[in-house]
Design goal:
The chain is an alpha/beta fold. It has helices spanning 2-16, 20-31, 77-92, 99-111, 115-128, 145-159, 241-259, and strands spanning 38-39, 42-43, 137-138, 142-143, 160-163, 166-169, 179-187, 190-197, 200-206, 210-213, 217-223, 232-236, 278-284. It has seven helices and 13 strands.
């Protein structure tokens, strides 16, 4: 836990400092931290690779670096594999979880892109850890807000993912949630809305320019007006962008010759410029990570 916490804090600091010398000091500190260690059940909770005596313990503290932290990711597949191994071990050997730890399991399943495990924990929380008024209950009968807030965070993780500037929709959709919609979701400064059916996004809108993964988008996905501000967005694909760009350039060139006009700034768009009402929604082929009843 402490290793992941320290790494996340230093990574956050490196992202905001302006002096190159300070960033160098932070990076040197990161390089000298004790590396993560592994045990028989996966990522080790203790220094020295000591195995945990309670393999089904409800806490997920060693996985802080994955959620809520962002230390682990696709750039370190071995660490991600060992984290998944520990998560699976604790899930398989669990003798019962309380609300907040079940909510954390939902969040982790979302970060692992595992909709089935997320659904299992969502149903467990609903069946075993809620009062009649839907407040989360800690045994024997204590209200625990952690479970309620954690559940919402977990659902967000299942429906929206983000890494390295790219947003992915439905990264860990629970299998039973075959159809639905989400409106007004805020991520990285953008407010987006989207609908899905049979596990595929059918419509998406945003109030500002975003980079969106092409994964889980239906072939006829509608990129239309923003429900918030009516901003028009244009859909493009990574493979088709070059062809579209060439055709567009040829058309503009012909129009320029025919009209005797010089079109300046046609091929670029910056939010807040002359065409501030037009937002480009860039679709890429980037995938964020490997891999209940309503």
């Amino acid at each position: 836990f402490e290793n992941g916490l320290a790494r996340q804090a230093l990574m956050n600091a490196a992202s905001i400092v302006e002096e190159p010398s300070e960033r160098t000091k932070i990076q040197n500190t990161l390089d000298h931290l004790q590396p993560f260690e592994y045990a028989q059940e996966g990522l080790s909770e203790w220094s020295g690779g000591i195995s945990c005596s309670e393999k089904g313990h409800r806490h997920f503290s060693p996985l802080y670096a994955l959620y809520p932290g962002r230390v682990a990711g696709a750039k370190d597949p071995e660490l991600l594999f060992q984290m998944r191994k520990l998560f699976d071990c604790r899930q398989a050997n669990s003798k019962g979880q309380i609300g907040w730890s079940t909510a954390w399991a939902i969040c982790l399943a979302g970060r692992f892109h595992d909709g089935a495990t997320a659904q299992k924990n969502i149903q467990l929380l609903i069946d075993k850890a809620l009062f009649r008024n839907l407040f989360n209950v800690h045994w024997p009968a204590i209200f625990q807000i952690d479970g309620n807030f954690g559940y919402v965070a977990g659902v967000n993780e299942c429906l929206i993912g983000y890494q390295d500037g790219v947003i992915e929709l439905l990264p860990a959709l629970p299998p039973d949630w075959r159809e639905g919609k989400m409106n007004g979701a805020q991520i990285r400064g953008a407010r987006i809305g989207f609908s899905w059916k049979n596990g595929q996004v059918t419509q998406v809108s945003s109030d500002r320019e975003i980079i969106l993964s092409g994964k889980n988008l239906a072939k006829n996905c509608r990129i239309g007006e923003s429900a918030e501000r009516g901003n028009m967005m244009k859909k493009s694909t990574k493979k088709g962008w070059k062809i579209v760009g060439i055709v567009f350039c040829v058309v503009i060139l012909l129009l320029a010759i025919a009209c005797g006009m010089v079109f300046g700034g046609v091929f670029t768009h910056k939010p807040g410029g002359q065409d501030a009402a037009c937002k480009v929604l860039q679709i890429t082929d980037v995938h964020i990570l490997n891999n209940a009843k309503k």
